[in-house]
């Protein structure tokens, strides 16, 4: 306990899934948490996103640990709103030590080309906006943690997609995650002289609402017209080398805590694959 004692951490996409898991785990280790989430749906993303109620529940879970929480409905695509919300949060807490740029969507399937733009804007531009809004507050010892994706890394090893079940939104997701990986290394180079770290985590299938959705079931079982979760569970393990269908949000949170803590004070510009050996196949 106390691995990030009295640090202040910003987490985007914090209302549920990996983001909420990170928030609670970091609070358990002594951090105060700033929770941002869009809390409304995006038209091209064919599964529901978090709600204001989800964000309030996440805030309460943090506060149950005895730590402070600040929650706001913020769209990471809107940099001015992000800057204003973060200023209000830092004014309340007095500092910012860690940034977890986690917000993401994956609009799979037969969507218009705007799905590419939506995925790219949330999954890459949203990460850049979050980090850049935070930079004025970060000091020596601070840590930036971005969320990539093994799916993005795998896509980067293959010829460019020309269609298929992923659709334009899936292509935007994969491309955005590839750029998050490259961006994190570049920002790490710029910040290293200031002793500020930046690292990226690449999860494989993770047991969240994004994975447990009809568009994702169809991605894994294109042979079926209306696959169920049970159908998809037969295909989920094919992604990993280890015989598991997915990792849990807590498995990713364990790495987030490490990277947020001073235990990783000399680790920067690195990839952390929480992938049950998925990349070993490529």
Automatic annotation (TrEMBL):
Q: What is its EC number?
A: 1.1.1.n4
Q: Which Pfam families match?
A: adh_short_C2
What GO MF terms are annotated?
oxidoreductase activity, acting on NAD(P)H, oxygen as acceptor
Q: Does the keyword DNA-binding apply?
A: no
Enzyme class (EC, first level): oxidoreductase
Superkingdom, natural source: Bacteria
Q: Does the keyword Transcription regulation apply?
A: no
Give the matching CDD domains: SDR_c (cd05233)
Tell me the keywords, alphabetical order.
NAD, Oxidoreductase
Read off the NCBIfam families from this record.
Answer: SDR_subfam_1 (TIGR03971)
Record-stated family: Belongs to the short-chain dehydrogenases/reductases (SDR) family.
Record protein name field: (-)-trans-carveol dehydrogenase
Lineage here is:
Bacteria, Bacillati, Actinomycetota, Actinomycetes, Mycobacteriales
